Amino acid sequence: MSDTKTHRSPARRAARGGASLRVAHPSISVVELRARGEQPLGREQLCARDDEISTRHAQITADADGYSIVDLRSRNGTFVQGARLEPGRALRLVDGDILRFGATLAVFRSGALPPPCPPTKNHGGPFGQAALEQQLRALARLPELRFVLVRGETGAGKEDAARQIAARLRPRGPLVVTNVAQLGPSTFHSELFGHARGSYTSAHTAHRGLLLDAGAGAIVLDELAELTLEQQVVMLRAIENAELTPVGGDPTRHGALIIGTTNRDLEVAVATGALRADFAARLKAAVVRLAPLRERAEDIPSIAVALAARVGIELDAEVEALEHLMRLPLLENARELARIVASASDVDGRLHQRDVGRLAGPPPALDLSRVHDGAYASDRALARAAGISRRQAMKVKRAPR
Question: I need a labelling partner for 354 at 20 to 30 A (CA). Which of 35, 119, 137, 347 fits?
Answer without folding.
Answer: 119
